[in-house]
Amino acid sequence: MKRTLKVRVGSVESALDRFEEVWSKAARGEKVPAEHVLTFVNLQLLLRTLTPARWTLLERLRADGPLSVNRTCPAFRARLQERARGRETARRAGSHRAAQGRARLGRLGRRAR
Question: What is the pLDDT of residues 27-37, one digit of tens each?
């Protein structure tokens, strides 16, 4: 299912007018398509809120389709590749064994829950 996010600069009144129009259609029993709109009251607020990193994320989502934010992180992608090759499991198992050994020696305490 493809969803489009519309980013606009407009007044609160125009956003409320759009809401009222959709509400009226729904009240009359008309089918109203879903619309995802992000409205900023002025360009300054839009540019302050949508930082370069957020613009990059939006461009990535537009190009690749729906992704979790974690999947856009290079470290997360590297971990997924390791898991696909079967390396991550061995690495984590080794870390777990090392932590158990340190715990037995008293160098690593366990937290009380």
Answer: 999 999 888 88
